[in-house]
Give the backbone structure.
Amino acid sequence: MIDSSLQLGRLDVSAYTVPTSAPEGDGTLAWDATTIVLVQAVAGSWTGIGWTFAPGACAALIKETLEPAVTGLNPFDVPAAAEAMARAVRNTPRPGLAGYAISAVDCALWDLKARILGLPLHRLLGAARAEVEIYGSGGFTTYSEAQLRRQLEGWTGQQQIPRVKIKIGEARGANTARDLLRIRQARDTIGPHVQLFVDANGAYTAKQAVRVFDAAAEQDLTWFEEPVSSDHLEGLRQVRQSVTADVAAGEYGTTLFYFQQMCGAGAVDCLQVDVSRCGGITEWFRAAAVAAAHGLEVSGHCAPNLTVPAAASTRNFRHLEWFHDHVRIEEMFFDGTPDPQGGSVRPSDDRPGNGLIFRALDAEPYRIQA
């Protein structure tokens, strides 16, 4: 029986900055630490958790703008909370940091609802599959040949993951010789039977991306992520029409219209959606519906443990990015993270909500003042 008098009491928000295991970089950015903003949505004796990877300022935005918009709502009415948050950030505005903030709260509210009902979150959402296919992701441009080899061997040898991705587009596309060398090194390491993905993070021009792909033809690339800027839809479409690999983008989407424009432009073969950026689980399903209406599948971008329940419940889902940086932090901070052995993970049927337990004491040394 649903308690119609139950109300969302508060949002507890905290931020933690965790140094990377080694310097990390891609074609257009380098970093040595990552910040996770955690939301704990409280109603009565229940707490739901959600998070996003964003600057610490995101925490203040949640407390100042989103908490007043959702406090007092019935925690079962997650769509009402999503609408209230969307209205609250009209002048913030929604694209960008506000979208990340909404995502963390929305995921926490869905988790809260499932925990109140005593259901695994993927059962509340309605499972479409028993397992979620994943791919190993990292292969940073800052890695040496030995570092790259160790990471790839860990994924394909120890964990038997049949899909891996490395970063290319070094120095904003100015070092294609090293890009091609690293692609060859990756293929030599993983062998002929593992799928090899590359991600340029928007570093190339359209024709440059095609030239790089053609030069790497013998390495059998099957996924070319953001060969050009994800804002350059015509450039994505040009690359898509010129290469045999699937072209993917969408990870920065924070509004439904972003995904509609990308799909409608014929810019991608697979739409990337990030549950920690797009507006949470509520908007994940709407973005997936947009992709389905264009005959496309969706791939989950980053925040892997947060994404698993939604991925398991999406019919037109392809795979989930098992991103080294986020996996490491999530395993440090949460009990109940699944094992990707064999290239897939199974959402838990034994624990309510997303199945995770926040280890506050382990996270505390990394807390920052947001």
Q: What stands out?
A: The longest strand covers residues 10-25.
